[in-house]
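WARN retry 2 of 3 for item q-0093 after timeout on previous attempt; input resubmitted unchanged.
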Amino acid sequence: MTLDDLRAFVAVCEAGSLSAVARDLGCTQSAVSQRVKRLEREAGIALLERRPRGVAPTRAGRILCRAATGSLAELDLALRRLADLRHGDGGTLRITTGATTVRHFMSAAVVAFRARHPHVDLEFQTENSGRRCFEAVADGTAELAWITIGPPVRGIEQHPVLELPWVLAVRSDDPLAGRDHIEPAELTGGRSGIRHIRLPENSVSRMRLDGHLARPETGQGPAVAPASSTSVADWDTAILLAELGVGHAVVPDLPGWRGAGHPSLRLIPVPGLPPLAAGWAVRQWAALSPVAVEFAETVNGSLGAGAAVGAVEGTAAGTGADPGARLRARRLSDAEADVSACAPACAGASEGRVTEGHVGGR
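OK item q-0093 returned
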């Protein structure tokens, strides 16, 4: 039994004629008859009966015809939708990430993609941690997740796209505002009068920052958490509070915070800290739908997808229009890590959310 057999049988039931269906299908009456006979052999019962003028379904034939009619219509609709996805003309694309990711990293790309694909439904799902982003990708709720590249997660590929250098955000009238850079050693132990606005617990950015500041080259020896009386849930809030003079924020240099729109803000480079990498998390790049690949490539291009991303935890990666081809994906085996095992570190893997796990705001 094949779908073409069922389609031919339903058409015969509706037309009441083998010859009429043969003409519609552009084949012989014998070919149509053979399709019906195959169904009858599998069903083990007659499905059509001959009448003076054509044919009509038997009782068994009516049962099969009713069942097949609805199912074939739904299947044909599903096949059309699959074709839309294949050709990029429709369907739904779900992207999960932090709350402010679109503002900082995707605004131009969304406009460009929408202009090319007006019939694709774009659905942005906000999650409050990197782990939730990984879970959405793993269970198929979302095809793409924009994250802060973090520790390995079983069954997930992480594709770095760009680097985010660290800066110290201060108010323009702060004593530190005239500095051209800050050394990492100045960020710990209360030096230089820095009053830290702390990033969220368990976020990738805070984990990385604390790890860098605890290294011997900072001169601090064992890890000592910078003194702080203020903590926030995302990067944007940290920068805003620094601009208001509430404290100082060590954050990634996010697009959109520089320029005339923020005359009271000064972002001082901290070149001694390795940059934070941001990019895509997917189950398998090769298995993404064409619209998902094109959307990701559009975002990459809008961010300057020719720049190198550098080493991320020992994995060299470069940016390009196709992370699957030009970026070295971190293909993670079951032995490398487990989602729950790295949950504390992954909670911020996307830095863009209220728990500061997403690259959209943390």
